Amino acid sequence: MAVNTKTDPVDGLPAIEAQDWAEEKHEHLRQYIDISREARRKFLRGPGAGASYCELFCGPGRLFHGSRFFDGSPLVAFKESARTGTAFTHLHLGDEQQEFCAAVEQRLQKLGAKVQTHPLKADAAAKRIVRALDDAAINLAFLDPFNLGDLPFSILETFSRLRRIDLVIHVSAMDLIRQMPAALKSGSRTFDRFAPGWQEAVKGLSPGEEARGRFIEHWLGLIRRAGYKDAKVWKLIRGPTNQPLYWLVLVAKHQLAATFWDKVGKSPQGKLDF
Question: Which residues in 65-101 are b (16+ Cβ under 10 Å) and which e?
Answer without folding.
Answer: eeeebbbbbbbbbbbbbeeeebbbbbbbbbbbbeebb
